Amino acid sequence: MRILSLILLFLVASFGARAETYPAADGTRDPQRILTVYSTLDEFVSRPLIEGFQREFPDVTVVYEEFQSLDIYERVIRETDEGDKTADLVISSAMDLQVKLVNDGYAQPVPGIDVDHWPDWATWRRSAFGLTFEPSVIVYHKPSFEGRDVPRNRADLIALLKSSEAELYGRIATYDVERAGLGFLFLARDREHNRDIWELVSAFGASGVKLYSNSSAILDRVADGRFALGYNILGSYDDCPAGLFCPAILNAGKSSKTQPFFSVS
Is 246 a residue whose pLDDT tops 80? Predict the structure, then answer.
């Protein structure tokens, strides 16, 4: 069985499959010196990381392919089981799926990494590694909430959705749990910590909730006022577009631009 090294990142999911090739910096064209990466992280966000890697290893070509987290999980299993070439490195926001790949034998330990001083949550069997720690939060469109209180917990949010159903109808967005592994993970965590989560889900449905497979599409629409609110958005969006009240990473220092709405995980 072909197995791959697996790195787990808690990062925003991305749009469908897209591939970019970064030729070796020194001009090497050795087919044995190609690093294939499957990732949910937007390529433009990963570009500095790739360029830094190639400064250290100028003879390595990097093939970077973007997928949804569920697509990555299924593709790794299918390619490996069929004996086809698969990724050398996987970067995904769906940590539960990443850990399952490790547990099911689709990843191999990475030698030479000192993880003895890492937090327990940040590494699994020396095959999966968590390199960020981000809250999920709510973002909202500031002009849409002028003159009204912003809900600070789920009960307040449920009350808002029920009292303003007509006004907010079609202007609420969250992850599509069928397409986005991270969205499914967030919903599972919500269910663990909130016994009224299905009342919130019902209120979302009555409000005509819009479902997306990535955070960036929701943020764009909240920023320009098409949506009033986005639920379960990753909290790493510190540079907010105009008109958007969005979260900084919690416990990472104060920001003059942003602050959390509230954490939901």
Answer: no
